[in-house]
Specification:
Layout: H1 3-31, H2 34-60, H3 64-91, H4 99-112, H5 124-151, H6 155-176, H7 185-207, H8 219-247
Helix pairs in contact: 1-2, 1-4, 1-5, 1-6, 1-7, 2-5, 3-5, 3-7, 3-8, 5-6, 7-8
Organism: Nocardioides baekrokdamisoli
Protein name: GDT1 family protein
Keywords: Membrane, Transmembrane, Transmembrane helix
């Protein structure tokens, strides 16, 4: 796996996760209190930094084959989940991920919540909401960064790519102060699901002492093969859905 492929895979995955967190933070800050929202965000980021500091060195101590098997399993779980949802959305069986709708829902819930002050936190609801959003979405970012980086012994590169993705989304959110609905998140989730599934299968097999023809070059046909299979499923499900609608 080249450095460029590592950066692209981590960057896209982290952008997808960051969009959801930033949407919630923007809703809380707009409807409630920006100071409390940013305090919750900062505390969440500090917790994630501590997790990274603990996980990074410890993962590097694991022998390579068990590490690849573990990383491959984790990436397959993430990839297949994302790919399944992306296929269902593309075929019409699941609603498209709409950041505008999420922003409106979070905005309405934030405005309706009671204001509670605790210590230096002026609005406890905003603080907790943003803290949870950062930690929950951020843990997936941390897991992706650590697994990709440790497996390739490029943890620093993976961390920089992940940080770049999060910073780009944060800058866009601050610039427009609106949901990032222009980011083609559904398409990105489809692409990231394909890449995570391919890398998970590749590394999992290597960790189980299997060998791929051409070694890393096998990813050049494995990724298109998974993408092609996913597109076939989308076309098939769309056809079934169209027939069901005609029958109904």
């Amino acid at each position: 796996m080249t450095t460029y492929a590592l950066v692209i895979a981590v960057l896209l995955a982290c952008v997808v996760e960051a969009v959801e967190a930033v949407t919630i933070i923007l809703a809380a800050g707009t409807a409630r209190d920006w100071r409390s929202s940013l305090q919750g965000t900062a505390v969440g980021l500090l917790l994630l930094a501590a997790v990274c500091a603990i996980l990074g060195p410890s993962v590097n101590q694991i022998p390579l084959n068990p590490l690849r098997l573990f990383v491959g399993t984790i990436l397959l779980i993430f990839g297949l989940q994302w790919l399944r949802k992306a296929i269902l959305r593309a075929s019409g069986y699941k609603a498209l991920h709409d950041e505008d709708a999420i922003f409106r829902r979070e905005l309405a819930e934030a405005r309706a919540a009671q204001t509670i002050t605790r210590g230096a936190i002026a609005d406890w609801y905003s603080f907790v909401l943003c803290f949870k959003a950062v930690v929950l979405e951020g843990l997936e970012v941390v897991l992706i960064v650590v697994t990709f980086g440790a497996n390739q012994h490029r943890l620093g590169v993976a961390a920089l790519a992940g940080a770049a993705g999060v910073i780009l989304v944060a800058i866009a959110g601050v610039a427009v102060r609106a949901p990032l609905s222009r980011v083609p998140e559904n398409t990105m989730k489809f692409a990231v699901g394909i890449m995570l599934t391919a890398y998970g299968a590749f590394w999992g097999a290597e960790g189980a002492h299997a060998s791929w023809p051409g070694d890393d070059a096998s990813l050049l046909w494995l990724i298109p093969a998974i993408a092609g299979f996913a597109l076939v499923l989308v076309i098939g499900l769309r056809t079934i859905r169209a027939r069901q609608e005609v029958t109904a």
